[in-house]
Automatic annotation (TrEMBL):
<dbReference type="Pfam" id="PF08541">
    <property type="entry name" value="ACP_syn_III_C"/>
</dbReference>
<dbReference type="GO" id="GO:0044550">
    <property type="term" value="P:secondary metabolite biosynthetic process"/>
</dbReference>
<feature type="domain" description="Beta-ketoacyl-[acyl-carrier-protein] synthase III C-terminal">
    <location>
        <begin position="244"/>
        <end position="333"/>
    </location>
</feature>
<keyword id="KW-0012">Acyltransferase</keyword>
<dbReference type="GO" id="GO:0004315">
    <property type="term" value="F:3-oxoacyl-[acyl-carrier-protein] synthase activity"/>
</dbReference>
<dbReference type="InterPro" id="IPR016039">
    <property type="entry name" value="Thiolase-like"/>
</dbReference>
<dbReference type="InterPro" id="IPR013751">
    <property type="entry name" value="ACP_syn_III_N"/>
</dbReference>
<dbReference type="GO" id="GO:0006633">
    <property type="term" value="P:fatty acid biosynthetic process"/>
</dbReference>
<feature type="domain" description="Beta-ketoacyl-[acyl-carrier-protein] synthase III N-terminal">
    <location>
        <begin position="113"/>
        <end position="190"/>
    </location>
</feature>
<keyword id="KW-0808">Transferase</keyword>
<dbReference type="Pfam" id="PF08545">
    <property type="entry name" value="ACP_syn_III"/>
</dbReference>
<protein>
    <submittedName>
        <fullName>3-oxoacyl-ACP synthase</fullName>
    </submittedName>
</protein>
<dbReference type="InterPro" id="IPR013747">
    <property type="entry name" value="ACP_syn_III_C"/>
</dbReference>
Length: 337
């Protein structure tokens, strides 16, 4: 396989931070609210009603264009996007994003699976396309845009899980070169868990049918227990598999970047790899759970702050949904900032 590098990352967070007080005025007392899975962040961002996933991606791309030149869009051979809540359920975000950027990529993919591990999944797909084609440059886009539209619905904003998600977009630029090489990627699907998370209108109505009921991912205490156990296991498991492939110990990784679902997962994951907390960046309190965008947004925050040393090994790891997918990637960091 030819060498492929993650040469840069960028991100965009919409609007002003939304305080937790927004939700507490509506919240109803319930046992679920005490669960560690739903302990809320200090703040989060919400996408505006008329702001789209493509808008966020275009605004994130502006930082890459500034660093790599106005001709960057014309260089893109591949655009791969993952959007938590598609703006158009018929057409994915990729073609519209290409039009906005002035790009004419040979390969445009919109992937819906991958969940919170979608950034790693898209890196893997881009690398495979580069290995089997003449493509040299790829843009991978993770947009989380359901916090504002879904979790502020009048009935949903009362639920324990409502304050946890935030909106944002993170993007990565990949090139077929060895400037910031991807050392290894491991993606794993667990189909036996695929039915354990579902989207419900809390009634008989299908989400596309007219009628009453507000759509949201539904949780029960038994489901939460299962998801927590799987997440605790899957992220370190796939991360340590990548470490073994590249010949390093988990404790020797310079920086671990994961999805950011809650504080307890974050603590358990760096403990499992025997890493101090300072080597596992945490954007949860500033951004909430950004789902697929959590890894690239956190990477961008750390990179812009100068905390990622060029030449260091950065390990990305995440799991998706109720545990049906997990992925990890190791990079020899060398991105611009």
């Amino acid at each position: 396989m030819p060498q492929v590098s993650l040469v840069d990352v960028a991100s965009y967070l919409p609007g002003e931070p939304v305080p937790t007080d927004y939700f507490t005025q509506y919240s109803r007392s319930e046992r679920m609210a005490k669960n560690v899975m739903f302990r809320s962040p200090t703040g989060r961002h919400h996408i505006a009603r008329d702001e789209t996933a493509v808008d966020m991606a275009e605004r994130a791309f502006a930082a890459l264009r500034e660093r790599h030149g106005d001709g960057l869009a014309a260089e893109l051979d591949i655009i791969i996007t993952h959007t938590q809540l598609p703006d158009n359920p018929v057409l994915g975000a990729g073609p519209e994003l290409a039009r906005r950027l002035g790009a004419r990529p040979a390969h445009v993919l919109d992937v819906h699976n991958g969940g919170c591990a979608a950034f790693v999944h898209m890196m893997s797909l881009a690398r495979m396309i580069m290995a089997t084609s003449a493509a040299k440059t790829a843009l991978v886009v993770a947009a989380q845009n359901c916090a504002g539209p879904v979790f502020t619905q009048p009935e949903i904003r009362k639920l324990a899980q409502a304050p946890v998600p935030g909106d944002g977009c993170g993007i990565g630029l990949l090139r077929k070169d060895d400037s910031a090489p991807i050392l290894d990627i491991d993606c794993r699907t667990y189909p036996e868990f695929a039915g354990d998370m579902d989207f419900s209108t809390n009634g008989p109505r299908k989400y596309w049918e007219p009628g009453e009921g507000q759509g949201c991912v539904s949780f029960t205490e038994s489901k939460i227990t299962k998801v927590f156990a799987r997440g605790n296991r899957l992220v370190p498991e796939v991360a340590l598999a990548v470490c073994e492939h590249i010949g390093v110990k988990g404790r020797d990784i310079d920086t671990l970047v994961t999805n950011q679902p809650n504080r307890l997962f974050l603590r358990n994951w760096h403990d499992a790899l025997e890493l101090p907390a300072e080597r596992h960046p945490d954007t949860f309190d500033q951004c909430g759970n950004l789902f697929a965008a959590g890894i690239p947004v956190t990477l961008d925050v750390e990179n812009r702050a100068g905390r990622l040393r060029n030449g260091s090994v950065v390990l990305l790891s995440a799991f998706a949904h109720a545990g049906d997918f997990a992925g990890a990637a190791a990079i020899r960091w060398g991105a611009a900032r």
